[in-house]
């Protein structure tokens, strides 16, 4: 009987969940789980589509944005527009936007642990050949989920125009991605005499980034992870004669070997497994584009790459 009741409730309260809305699982951020429940049973968003303001193709409002060069948060007006596929933000009213971001190139992820705030997001995109991170938050959990969903909705509609032959389910899988793994590791520089330095690592799909601090606006370096057939591998320990620290492992790429170290055996195993899963996958056309951005950035001499 309970199962029948659950099915009936789902049919009633989830009649019109838009494809861009992320249906949460138990492991997803708490803010997404809570707002999913409130959207279903309190706001009746999925029985009354007129309540789905995030599907309108336009959204504007204020978010608290972390300063690029400080740890303070400042109110910034953001404007999302589907007609030109952009997200803009303004420092001052009636002035030109501080930045215009192409939504197609934008990844959005919740960042509760990093910002120590449940209602927070990390926006990441490629600029001038390198990744840029923007951190935003709002005091209203409903509002932050609306922004998250609105960005996904605009992205879906832009994808549907750009890739008319792709199925909706294929495109939905490309709307946003959570980072595969993040945490502190130590790494050496390229010279044999370089010592280990602590860095915050982020594994974002096929890009392994490292930062001085988790909240840095730019990674200190970015490593594209190709596939095993092209000379990428992950190995326990370090090459003979190389410096070793704690629980070491080595990432081999065609251009360089990276000596890395975790603080525990368990952490090392988790990082190695995560990276191994990435390099075992075949490259997609989107992966090749990401690789070319990092390579072209390196050729231009952009700081912080490799």
3D architecture notes:
- It is found in: Cytoplasm.
- One of its GO terms (cellular component) is plasma membrane.
- Keywords: Cytoplasm, GTPase activation, Metal-binding, Repeat, Zinc, Zinc-finger.
- By secondary structure, the chain is α+β, with helices and mostly antiparallel strands.
- The chain has two domains: 13-172, Roll (PH-domain like); 181-300, Pleckstrin-homology domain (PH domain)/Phosphotyrosine-binding domain (PTB) (PH-domain like, Roll), CATH 2.30.29.30.
- Helices cover 28% and strands 28% of the residues.
- The chain has helices at residues 2-13, 30-41, 112-115, 141-162, 168-172, 265-279, 285-300, and strands at 58-66, 73-81, 86-90, 99-102, 107-110, 120-127, 130-137, 181-187, 197-204, 207-211, 221-224, 233-236, 247-252, 257-262.
- It has a seven-stranded antiparallel sheet with strand order 4-3-2-1-7-6-5. It has a seven-stranded antiparallel sheet with strand order 11-10-9-8-14-13-12, with helices on both faces.
- It is globular.
- The model is unreliable at 296-306 (pLDDT under 50).
> Based on the structure, what is the oligomeric state of the protein chains?
single chain
Helix percentage: 25-40%
N→C terminal distance: 59 Å
Strands of the biggest beta sheet: in what spatial order?
4-3-2-1-7-6-5
- Residue share in β-strands: 25-35%
Structural class: alpha+beta
Brief overview:
With 306 residues, the protein is of the alpha+beta class. Helix content is 28%, strand content 28%.
SSE layout and pairing:
Blueprint: H1 2-13, H2 30-41, E1 58-66, E2 73-81, E3 86-90, E4 99-102, E5 107-110, H3 112-115, E6 120-127, E7 130-137, H4 141-162, H5 168-172, E8 181-187, E9 197-204, E10 207-211, E11 221-224, E12 233-236, E13 247-252, E14 257-262, H6 265-279, H7 285-300
Antiparallel strand pairs: 1-2, 1-7, 2-3, 3-4, 5-6, 6-7, 8-9, 8-14, 9-10, 10-11, 12-13, 13-14
